[in-house]
Specification:
heterodimer; A: 368 residues; alpha/beta; Rossmann fold; five-stranded parallel beta sheet; four-stranded parallel beta sheet; 11 strands; 18% strand; globular; B: 76 residues; alpha+beta; SH3 type barrels; five-stranded antiparallel beta sheet; 1 helix; 5 strands; 41% strand; elongated
Chain lengths: 368, 76
């Protein structure tokens, strides 16, 4: 079977119309439903496909802390910048992170001032660079959720060159979801769970959260119908008073996830409390290198002092509230005025998966 | 960041594979998966295959929804 046929199926306007009718019928049976998703790619699909405009007035889908670039604390970016200014060090980064403003400036601005920064597609390219430049120290800025962490773990387990190390800055999604529920700032009737994070970790890590907080969760894919069906499945649970973890993205997500990828992560990393920009510290939501792999930690290898006291966001920026599902980008007075993709004031306006960037670039599909 | 692009596996050699992203061919790492075969569609994230796509499961999900929604319309 050709994949194109599958993707056409998940973009079918005819079926989408029926699912929207189904959502409308279910919505009549609930007072209101506030759904939060935690993935920048979901936000992209929602805005680009105009999904919010298709939903009934009592059903909202808000963006949560689903953009790893946006939630990366400035102290980690500052550490990467400091390393990039060291003689003999080259810092590699994903393109999304390159222009994110930090305490003083971004990696891009640091590069303009003479720091050595290279944008790479993946950690594999950073390792190749280290092999080509044996007289330099190559430091990869290892950000990303569970989707990205296995590639870092694999590389570190496969005996990388001695001149290679990382700034460890991975973050984990289930603790962030639990933290949002503990904060209790926003009414949350259900979560659309990230399809590719869940491809790695499976459905199991979310189950205790559904049980403890009585909250429905659905793992959804990234085509327009995936999201619409995800919303319908959540509403169905709300109507029936269920709080379970269900999988809509069946073509990629298995109950147990990608066990091999999990084994690499387990071997190299252990969970540790970590800071999230605009949110604060969350227990067991980051990774540190296990003993035996600590030599690959650039922070200790190069004795970088990390200053965690720096403010998360600049005055007036509402990225923190946007990342906690409390407001839409258009609610921020800076949006589209002094904060634009060309001149971003806050982190959510930089990444192609940041809620503000997506709203600015692709439209106005907030709840009207 | 968590974007993963589907690609068709053309050749497998140890922990690497040549895949086709709709015309663009590239070498990727398949060490995070077992039993990847030429002809499989994989999801590729930052140069690593993270899962083999189950096309039959995908079509089955769509079929079930078509069926469910059609039967509901009849009920109405």
């Amino acid at each position: 079977m050709e994949l194109e046929k599958v993707l056409r199926g998940y973009r079918s306007a005819e079926l989408a119309k029926k699912v929207v009718e189904h959502i409308n019928a279910l919505a009549k049976e609930v007072e209101e439903a506030n759904i939060v998703h935690v993935c920048g790619t979901h936000e992209y699909t929602i805005v680009k496909s105009g999904i919010r405009s298709l939903l009934p007035p009592n059903v909202e889908v808000r963006s949560g802390p689903g953009c790893p670039v946006c939630v990366c604390p400035p102290s980690d970016i500052d550490a990467a910048i400091e390393l990039a200014f060291r003689p003999n060090v080259v810092v590699t980064t994903f393109g999304d992170m390159y222009r994110v403003p930090s305490t003083k400036y971004s990696l891009a601005e640091a590069a303009a001032k003479g720091a050595s920064v290279r944008v790479v597609y993946g950690i594999g390219d950073a390792v190749e660079l280290a092999k080509k430049m044996p007289d330099k120290e190559v430091v990869h800025f290892a950000i990303g959720f569970e989707t990205t962490a296995p590639s870092t773990a694999y590389v570190l387990s496969a005996d990388p060159p001695p001149n290679f190390s990382i700034v460890p800055s991975h973050r984990l999604i289930p603790p962030a979801i639990e933290h949002l529920l503990n904060l209790g700032e926003a009414r949350i009737d259900g979560f659309i769970l990230p399809g590719h994070v869940s491809t790695i970790i499976g459905a199991k890590p979310y189950r205790p959260i559904s049980q403890k907080y009585r909250v429905p969760q659905v793992i959804a894919g990234f085509e327009p119908l995936d999201v619409l069906i995800g919303v319908a499945m959540l509403l169905q649970q709300v109507v029936e008073g269920r709080s379970e973890v269900e999988i809509e993205y069946t073509r990629s997500v298995r109950e147990e996830g990608n066990v091999r990828a999990q084994q690499f992560m387990e071997k190299i990393f252990e969970p540790v409390e970590a800071g999230w920009r605009g949110i604060g510290k969350i227990p067991k939501s980051g990774y540190r290198l296990r003993s035996g792999y600590e030599q690959y930690n650039a922070i200790s290898r190069f004795e970088v002092e990390v200053d965690e006291s720096a403010p998360d966001t600049k005055p007036g920026c509402r990225c923190g509230e946007i990342l906690r599902g409390l407001c839409y980008p258009q609610d921020c007075p800076l949006f589209g005025k002094i904060c634009t993709p060309r001149s971003p004031w806050g982190p959510c306006m930089v990444s192609s998966e940041g809620a503000c960037f997506i709203a600015y670039r692709y439209g106005k599909s907030v709840k009207l | 960041m968590c974007l993963a692009i589907p690609a068709k596996v053309l050749e497998v050699s140890g922990d690497t594979a040549i895949v086709d992203f709709g015309g663009v061919k590239r070498e990727i790492c398949i060490a995070l998966l077992e039993n990847v075969k030429p002809g499989d569609y994989v999801l590729v994230h930052t140069g690593f295959a993270i899962q083999v796509i189950d096309e039959e499961e995908a079509m089955e999900t769509l079929r079930l929804w078509e069926e469910l929604l059609s039967s509901q319309q009849v009920e109405v």
